[in-house]
Specification:
- By secondary structure, the protein is of the alpha+beta class.
- Helix content is 29%, strand content 26%.
- The strands form five sheets. Strands 1, 2, 3, 4, 5, 6, 7, 8, 9, 10, 11 and 12 form a twelve-stranded mixed beta sheet that branches.
- A hairpin with a 2-residue loop joins strand 23 (672-675) and strand 24.
- Helix 1 packs across helix 3, helix 2 (22-29) packs across helix 3 (33-41) and helix 13 packs across helix 14 (361-377).
Length: 718
C-alpha cells in the first residue's frame, strides 16, 4: 500500500478544501478544539474509532482517511484558473519565451533531454531514462480526453483567440490547431517521460523547481556549472510545440512535498490576451484544484490525483521512480510536415505510390526526426566505457489510440555514431594512441584553452587542457571530417568541419572534450565549464561572443574560444595528414577531379577597383547520397570594403558551357556569413572558410563520372 501523508498536514488541507475550521470540526465530533489542534500539529493522532467520525465529517470514506494518499472529494473540484487581464490595460500576444525556439520536435528533443540530464539523480550512479511517446488519438478516445481536460470550460477562450487570430501569430497557430482537431477528428499527444530525475520538487509558489517550471518565466535554478541549461528558456519549447498551447504535467518527486511523492499533477495553458464574456484574461491558465488560501479560492494549484484521473489525462507513469511526465497537447512539427509533403512528391514522381498512406505519415515522420535528433546530439551522453557509465538512455515509440504504429526504438549510440562512440570509449578505457597507424585506432591530443580572468582584468586564470580524439570514419558516421565538441553533460554543443585539410586525407571523425568531460584530472575543468557555458546562446549549439561572456569576462573573451578552434584544427591536420608522396600517388586521382577557377569578376560598380577574395584551397568528397561535399578556403585582401561573393559549382566538360549545379546546403564556418547563397565576409578577417553540399537532383550524370569546378564570383553571381 502506498505510504500516505502525515495525518496533521493532510487534515489541515482537507479542512481548507472543505471550507471548515478546527472549531467547526471539533463541534461535529463533539470534542474540544484543543484535541483537533493536537492532531493538526502532530502532537497526537485520533483513535481508530474516531477515524470513522472524521471521514463522515469530511464527506469521504474511511479508507481515504486511513491511507491519506489523496484528497477528499469534499473540496473544490479541479478546474481551470485564467490569469485576469492587467489592470493597467496591458496586453500580451503570447509567451515571448516560446519565440526563442521553433515548433520543431528536434529542438524539443534537444532541450528536454538536456533538462533531464541536468536533473539526473547522481547518488545511485544510474542514467536518467527519457522516453518519447507520440500518440495520435481519434474518435471516442479523443472525446474522452477532451472531457478529461474540461474542454467545455476552455472552448470560449479558444473561440475568443480564434476571432482575433488575424492580428496575432500565436492566435493563428492556436486557431489552426483547434481547426485541425475538429476537421480531421484527431489530436497528437507527445509525452516526454524521464525517470531517475529529481521531479518537480518544491512549493507551488516558493523558490523551487516546481514554481520555476510551472509558474515562472526566464528563471533557471540550475547551480551546477556543468548543467546544460542556464537561461530558463528550455521549458518554453514544450508549449511552443503545442498547437493548442497546452501542457499537462505529472511528477513523481524525489523529495516529499506535503508528505507525498506520487501523482503531483497540474496543467498550464499559454494563450494570448483575450476577452471572454465580461472578463479579460492576460494569457496563461492553470488546471488544478482551487487553493483555499488564495482570495476567493480562485487561484489553482497542483493536486495529488488518483490513478483514474491520471489515466484519463494520458499521464500514467511506468513506475514510482522519481521524474516528470510532460504531455504536449496538439503537438505539431512544422519541419516534419514539410518533409512529409516532399516525400509525397518524390513518391508520385517515381511512381511508387502504390502503398496507400494509412494516415500515419505525419507521426511516423515525427518519430524519425526525434530519433535523428537524439542520435545526433546525445550519442556521447549514452556512451559508456571503462569505469564510466552512460548518463542517459532514450527511446521513442509511436501509437494510435493505444495501438502500436512504430515499435519502441531504443537509441543505440554505437549504431548511430560508430566512429565517435569508438573514440569516446577508447578514451574511457585508456586505449588511445599518439598517432593513427591502423584502422580502428583512436589518437589523442590535448589542446589548450587559456581561461581569462573575470571582470575584464588582463591576464590568464589558467590553462585548461581539452582532449581531442580522432579516429577513422565509415559510411554510417554521416558527414565526414567533423569535430563534435562537448562539455560536462556530454551533449554535443558544436559541430564544425575542419578547414584547409590537405587533399586526399582519409575520412575521419573527431571529438573535443572540454570541461569536466575531459576527465577529473583535467586542470581548471570546473572553470572551463563555467566559461564555455557562458559562451553559449539559448540554443546551446555553439560557442562565441554572448552578452553574459562580455559582462562577466570581457568583450574580447570570445577570442580565447577562437584560439581553441585554431589549436584544434591544427592538431587534427597534424594527426590525419599523410606523408608526402610523388605526384602519381595518394590523392592525385582526386585532385584531377577538382578545379579551383580564378575569381570571375563582374561589371558591378561595387566590385570595381576593389581587391577581390580568392579561392585558396578546396577539399571535396562524394557523400552517401551521391552529392559533392565541399570545404573551401578563401584568401581575403587587405581592403576597407570587401564585396559580396557567390560560390558557384560547375561540372567540367570538354566543350560547351559548363553545367551549373545547385546547392542543397551552403554554410559559413569561419570569417564569413551566408545569406541567400551569397558570402559576406567579416571585416578585418584575413581568411574565410565555407562548406556546402550539392543538390543531387541537379546532377546531369552520376557524380563519380564527373569533374568538379568551383568558382567564386563577385556580386550575386548571376
Amino acid at each position: 500500500m502506498e505510504t500516505g501523508e502525515d495525518f496533521g498536514p493532510w487534515l489541515a488541507r482537507q479542512l481548507k478544501l472543505a471550507g471548515k475550521n478546527q472549531a467547526e470540526l471539533a463541534d461535529e465530533l463533539k470534542l474540544t478544539r484543543a484535541a483537533v489542534s493536537a492532531w493538526i500539529t502532530g502532537r497526537s493522532v485520533p483513535r481508530p474509532t474516531m477515524m470513522t467520525e472524521i471521514a463522515r465529517a469530511l464527506g469521504t470514506d474511511i479508507g481515504t482517511v486511513h491511507t491519506r494518499t489523496t484528497d477528499t472529494q469534499a473540496g473544490l473540484p479541479v478546474t481551470w484558473y485564467h490569469r485576469p487581464g492587467y489592470q493597467d490595460g496591458g496586453r500580451d500576444g503570447g509567451n515571448a519565451a516560446a519565440f526563442a525556439f521553433d515548433a520543431d520536435v528536434q529542438v524539443l528533443a534537444r532541450e528536454t533531454c538536456q533538462n533531464s540530464l541536468d536533473e539526473r539523480l547522481t547518488d545511485n550512479g544510474r542514467p536518467v531514462r527519457v522516453r518519447y511517446t507520440i500518440h495520435e488519438i481519434t474518435g471516442e478516445t479523443l472525446d474522452a480526453f477532451r472531457q478529461a481536460i474540461l474542454w467545455d470550460e476552455l472552448q470560449p477562450h479558444y473561440e475568443a483567440v480564434s476571432e482575433a487570430a488575424a492580428h496575432q501569430k500565436v492566435g493563428r497557430v492556436v486557431h489552426a490547431g483547434v481547426r485541425d482537431m475538429f476537421e480531421k477528428g484527431r489530436l497528437v499527444l507527445l509525452r516526454v517521460d524521464d525517470y531517475n530525475a529529481s521531479g518537480l520538487v518544491g512549493d507551488d509558489y516558493g523558490n523551487g523547481k516546481f514554481a520555476a517550471v510551472v509558474r515562472r518565466q526566464l528563471e533557471s535554478l540550475k547551480s551546477d556549472r556543468g548543467a546544460g541549461g542556464s537561461f530558463g528558456l528550455g521549458k518554453a519549447t514544450l508549449w511552443a510545440t503545442s498547437a493548442l498551447g497546452m501542457v499537462l504535467i505529472n511528477s513523481t518527486l524525489s523529495v516529499p512535498h506535503e508528505g507525498r511523492t506520487e501523482r503531483r499533477v497540474i496543467g498550464r495553458l499559454e494563450l494570448p490576451w483575450r476577452s471572454v464574456g465580461d472578463g479579460t484574461y492576460a494569457g496563461p491558465a492553470w488546471l488544478g484544484r482551487p487553493d483555499p488560501d488564495s482570495p476567493g479560492a480562485q487561484v489553482t494549484r497542483s493536486w495529488w490525483a488518483d490513478e483514474d484521473i491520471v489515466e484519463r489525462l494520458h499521464l500514467t507513469r511506468d513506475s514510482d521512480e522519481p521524474g516528470t511526465s510532460f504531455l504536449i497537447v496538439g503537438a505539431h512539427d512544422v519541419a516534419s510536415l514539410d518533409e512529409s509533403n516532399a516525400d509525397r512528391v518524390v513518391d508520385d514522381e517515381n511512381g511508387r505510390d502504390g502503398q496507400e498512406d494509412d494516415g500515419t505519415r505525419d507521426i511516423r515522420s515525427m518519430h524519425r526526426r526525434l530519433v535523428e535528433a537524439l542520435e545526433r546530439d546525445f550519442w556521447a551522453a549514452m556512451t559508456a566505457g571503462g569505469s564510466r557509465l552512460p548518463l542517459l538512455e532514450t527511446s521513442v515509440r509511436t501509437l494510435r489510440n493505444g495501438q502500436v504504429v512504430v515499435e519502441e526504438q531504443q537509441i543505440d549510440p554505437t549504431e548511430a555514431q560508430p566512429a565517435r562512440t569508438r573514440a569516446l570509449r577508447a578514451f574511457y578505457e585508456g586505449t588511445t594512441v599518439d598517432r593513427l597507424t591502423e584502422p580502428g585506432q583512436v589518437a589523442l591530443r590535448t589542446v589548450p584553452l587559456r581561461l581569462p580572468l573575470a571582470g575584464g582584468r588582463r591576464g590568464t586564470l589558467g590553462t585548461h587542457q581539452a582532449v581531442l580524439l580522432v579516429t577513422d570514419a565509415g559510411d554510417k558516421d554521416g558527414v565526414p571530417k567533423q569535430v563534435h565538441s562537448l562539455r560536462g553533460n556530454r551533449m554535443t554543443i558544436k559541430r564544425s568541419t575542419v578547414a584547409g585539410l590537405p587533399l586526399g586525407v582519409n575520412s575521419f571523425q573527431a571529438v573535443l572534450l572540454t570541461g569536466t568531460a575531459a576527465g577529473e584530472a583535467a586542470p581548471f575543468a570546473e572553470e572551463a565549464e563555467e566559461f564555455l557555458r557562458a559562451a553559449e546562446p539559448p540554443e546551446h549549439d555553439r560557442w562565441g561572443q554572448t552578452e553574459e561572456l562580455t559582462l562577466r569576462w570581457s568583450h574580447t573573451a570570445h577570442h580565447r574560444i577562437a584560439r581553441l578552434t585554431t589549436e584544434v584544427n591544427a592538431a587534427v591536420k597534424e594527426l590525419v595528414a599523410r606523408p608526402k608522396r610523388s605526384g602519381d600517388e595518394g590523392g592525385a586521382k582526386l585532385r584531377k577531379a577538382l578545379t579551383v577557377s580564378p575569381t570571375k569578376k563582374t561589371t558591378s560598380r561595387r566590385a570595381a577597383g576593389l581587391g577581390l577574395p580568392e579561392l585558396d584551397g578546396l577539399d571535396a568528397s562524394i557523400g552517401p547520397a551521391g552529392e559533392w561535399r565541399i570545404t573551401a578556403e578563401v584568401k581575403l585582401p587587405r581592403v576597407d570594403e570587401l564585396p559580396v561573393m557567390t560560390p558557384v559549382v560547375l561540372l567540367d566538360v570538354r566543350s560547351g558551357a559548363r553545367p551549373r549545379l545547385d546547392w542543397a546546403e551552403l554554410v559559413a564556418e569561419e570569417g564569413c556569413e551566408v545569406e541567400d547563397g551569397v558570402l559576406r565576409f567579416t571585416p578585418g578577417a584575413r581568411r574565410a572558410v565555407f562548406g556546402g553540399a550539392t543538390d543531387v537532383t541537379s546532377h546531369p550524370v552520376r557524380t563519380a563520372l564527373t569533374r568538379l569546378v568551383l568558382e567564386l564570383r563577385a556580386g550575386k553571381g548571376e
